[in-house]
Design goal:
By secondary structure, this protein is of the alpha/beta class. It folds into 3 domains: 209 residues, Rossmann fold; 98 residues, no CATH class; 71 residues, no CATH class. The protein is built from 12 helices and 15 strands. The strands form 4 sheets. The chain has a 7-stranded mixed sheet with strand order 3-2-1-4-5-7-6, sandwiched between helices. The protein has a 4-stranded antiparallel sheet with strand order 12-13-14-15, with no helix packed on it. Strand 2, helix 2 and strand 3 form a beta-alpha-beta unit. The longest helix is centred in the first third of the chain and has 18 residues. The radius of gyration is 24 Å and the shape is globular. The chain starts with a strand and ends with a helix. The relative contact order is 0.12.
């Protein structure tokens, strides 16, 4: 069975398919770092090309399977709160489907963020931007890859023509893994890779430099973003190790709602971010898979954008018609050789112990956050280099937030008069009914 991998990235699709017995004969991507990583781990059958202008005559012949993950940036809610350019994102979906239509493979599978499922359902209809490809699509699903043994809650849209029922039956055969299964596996002199049945000695691991603990200010800002966000519900801080990790993204600043922060066992009461190697393991990559990129942030991007090869392995098994009774997991199969070259370690930036005096600030005033995102919020701006503090009253649903600016006199009344707070609570309760 021969396959090609479109928008291949570092090779998450290709690695899993190769482990399952599907031969990937070509990979195509535009990122030079992703292609270098793919080439050094999986071979030279990969090339740089823009999928939007791809010449079909350059594609291999006799292809049975087409897989790939078009860019999700325009569709992701992590991008400007979901305000990306959907029309631009759809161009990549069209480019992928056009190749499928040209090749007419026996099977094809596309992966993307959950939002793409609704885009397919609407744009495949008459008059939609994907209408001309409606004859290609057999199924559209949203699945959580944690159900396939990934130690991460990662909901993904899976679209295509493939044995979906067989694939989903594999979920009953896979173990549930928590984040602690990955974190704890790095604590001895070697890393035991449970997902792929391998042992890598600690001094042979790349990209496992544990950075400095978060500063007190970074901890405070994380607490504010995660547990007291102005709009969204609170989340746990630090992240729980007793369940699959939250979804890894392609960015990971030290201070953000999306960043995964865990206890730093080196010092009681301190916290840290995940290492690159821990992130790669949570994404279902073997411990000896090497990532080649010029910076720490670039490697985070490569890892976060990848399709977990643990999942693509099970897709490959389904494509080959492996029954649940004959299913062998990755750790039960023969290992494959990856990059003989260890990737250079890329260090995270040193901790910034002093925050800029010109940084922007936004926080809910303590005691003035009510239900449904209703709140008094303080923020700052700078006029001719001098800070100006602003207090606004926000109310409404997350998709229809309305704002009233408060003058200094009104603010003093609200802060000093407890009856004003009681009226706000009554107003919010009546508005929620």
């Amino acid at each position: 069975m021969r396959a090609i991998d479109l928008y291949c990235g570092v090779g998450g699709w290709s690695l899993g398919l190769k482990l399952s017995g599907v031969r990937v004969v070509a990979g195509i991507d535009l990122s030079t770092s992703a292609l270098e990583t793919y080439r050094k781990n999986l071979g030279d059958h990969v090339r740089r090309a823009d999928m939007r202008t791809l010449c079909y005559t350059s594609l291999p012949k006799k292809i049975d399977v087409v897989v790939g993950s078009p860019p999700c940036t325009q569709f992701s809610y992590s991008n400007r709160g979901g305000s990306g350019d959907l029309n631009d994102g759809i161009v990549d979906l069209q480019a992928f489907l056009s190749v499928v239509d040209h090749i007419q493979p026996k099977f094809w599978v596309m992966e993307n963020v959950p939002r793409v499922a609704k885009i397919f359902e609407s744009e495949l209809l008459p008059g939609g931007k994907l209408e001309e490809y409606s004859h290609l699509v057999d199924s559209v699903h949203v699945v959580d890859l944690a159900e396939f043994g990934l130690p991460q809650r990662r909901r993904r849209c899976i679209v295509g023509k493939f044995p979906d029922e067989l694939l989903f039956n594999y979920r009953e055969e896979t173990p549930t893994r928590a984040m602690k299964d990955v974190i704890n596996s790095f604590k001895s002199q070697y890393y035991d890779d449970e997902m792929f049945g391998a042992r890598v000695y600690s001094d042979e691991l790349s990209d496992h430099d544990i950075e400095d603990s978060l500063t007190d200010e970074e901890v405070r800002l994380n607490l504010e973003a995660k547990t007291r966000h102005p709009v969204y519900n609170g989340m746990r801080f630090p992240d729980s190790l007793d369940r699959p990790a939250r979804t890894l993204t392609a960015t990971c600043t030290k201070v953000s709602r999306e960043s995964i922060v865990i206890d730093d066992e080196r010092t009681f009461g301190s916290f840290r971010r995940l290492t690159l190697r821990e992130r790669a393991s949570l994404q279902g990559f073997p411990g000896d898979f090497q990532f080649f990129a010029p910076s720490y942030a670039a490697k985070i991007r490569l890892i976060g954008n990848a399709l977990p090869p643990l999942f693509s392995y099970y897709v490959g098994c389904a494509l080959r018609g492996v029954s649940t009774g004959r299913l062998r997991h990755p750790w039960q199969r023969k290992r494959i050789s990856l990059s003989p070259q260890r990737a250079p370690n890329t260090k995270p930036r040193l901790a910034q112990h002093r925050m800029s005096s010109k940084r922007r600030f936004r926080a809910v005033i303590p005691g003035f956050r009510f239900n449904s995102g209703m709140r008094l919020q303080m923020s700052n701006t700078f006029v001719c280099g001098q800070p100006k503090w602003i207090v606004d009253f926000h109310y409404g649903s997350p998709k229809d937030i309305r704002t009233i600016g408060l003058e200094e006199h009104s603010l003093n009344v609200l802060i000093t008069d407890r009856r004003a707070e009681e009226e706000l609570v009554k107003l919010n309760l009546s508005g929620a009914e």
